[in-house]
Amino acid sequence: MTPLTDEQQREACLILAVGCDRETAAKYVGCRVEDLDRQADSDADFQQRLRRAEASPELAHMRNIQQAGREEKNWRASVWWLERLAPERFARRDFGAVTRAELKRFIEALAEHIACEVQDEEDRSRLLERLRELIVGVNEEDDEIEPGREPPARGAADASEDSSTPINPIEQYEE
């Protein structure tokens, strides 16, 4: 890979700063996402500029929402954008709905209790295996898109608990 030019780096950051993702930025500057990532890994300054550029649209939309009380201007567009950028954090949820992060924390706690409380090794292993099967089922369901529903947009600032990361919080308890 040839290092990105200063112009390519600047343009990539500008594309990210308006809310596009790394894939769009890479296409625009004529490289691959992996090239952007490699350049960022080898250039701490570029990495910091990328992170700031990716975060700036979220901050702008958050400012719009904060100003909604004073002006009825553009706040709905900002909410729409945030819901699609990071649905785990911003999308409207039905009462009682559980996020991936909450589900993961619950399964971790359950696995810890099973590991500590179930003395018989065979029973403990069997219960942890059943729990692992449930986790596999949840991860497989995530791979399917519900009919009539688009998958959430993949934004640059997605949290680490995004829906593309499989859940498996019981690995540490499996023998």
UniProtKB/TrEMBL annotation:
Q: Where is this region: Disordered?
A: 139-175
What is this protein's name? Uncharacterized protein
Query: What is the taxonomic lineage of the source species?
Result: Bacteria, Pseudomonadati, Planctomycetota, Planctomycetia, Pirellulales
**Superkingdom, natural source:** Bacteria
What organism does this protein naturally occur in?
A: Pseudobythopirellula maris
